[in-house]
Amino acid sequence: MKATLSKLTIVAERLLKDPLLDLIKNEGATGYTLAAVEGEGSRGVRASDWEGRNIQIDTIVTPTIADKILDKLSAEYFDDFAIIAWVVDVKVLRRSKFAIEAAS
Questions:
Q1: Which 8-state DSSP code applies to residue 103?
Q2: pLDDT-wise least confident of 6-10, 19-23, 34-38, 72-76
Q3: What residues have CB less than 8 Å from 98, skipping those under 6 apart?
């Protein structure tokens, strides 16, 4: 049976890799996909040999967990780092493979 969850995507400076992975795991994500990426945005191309490529982290979580992660990203990183994030609804099979919210 299909279930609707949230796919959270974060694109950030690679120096944030470990803190961001800790954040998503601490908030309840059970897994993630990590890739080195490059691109161009509102500030042009951000690339240099010293900075290296950006990272992209994708994780599928419940909407509540996605909101918690976004709130922490906004509070802790948006002012000082090159980072963007977005959430889309996705349909998944085997919901139990993804983040499960703790009982309240």
A1: P
A2: 34-38
A3: 5, 30, 31, 60, 61, 62, 92
**Phi and psi angles of residue 2, each rounded to the nearest 5 degrees, phi first:** -80, 145
Asked whether residue 72 is assigned to any structural domain, the reply reads yes
Residue 104 covered by a domain:
no
Question: What tokens does 100 get?
Answer: 């499960």
**Which residues span the domain enclosing 31?**
3-93
Owner of token pair 């240099």: 48
Q: How far is CA 1 from CA 6, 22, 24, 47, 96, in A?
A: 16, 30, 26, 43, 11
User: What does the pLDDT look like over 59-95, one tens digit per residue?
Assistant: 999 999 999 999 999 999 999 998 999 999 999 998 8
Full-model pTM: 0.86
Query: How many residues are present in the chain?
Result: 104
Q: Choose between 59 and 40: higher pLDDT.
A: 59
